[in-house]
Amino acid sequence: MNTNIGKLDKVIRLSIALIIGLLYLLNIITGTVAIVLGVIGASMLITSLVGICPLYSPLGINTCKKQKA
């Protein structure tokens, strides 16, 4: 599978994941909201580290710059 997440997209996803983690650690979010945001944050962290977003492929989105052959 080809990378479909660009550098800016990775930074934004990683930042959101870190903010969600920080909010959880500071007990600003709790309960069901913390679980839902935790799942979202974990998926953003994983996709930013791997560089592939499974939702981008069916939608035809690619934020990664094309590589020269």
From TrEMBL:
It comes from the Bacteria. Residues 1-67 form the Inner membrane protein YgaP-like transmembrane domain. This is Inner membrane protein YgaP-like transmembrane domain-containing protein. Keywords: Membrane, Transmembrane, Transmembrane helix. The keyword Transmembrane applies. The chain crosses the membrane at residues 12-29, 35-56. It comes from Lunatimonas lonarensis. InterPro entries: YgaP-like_TM.
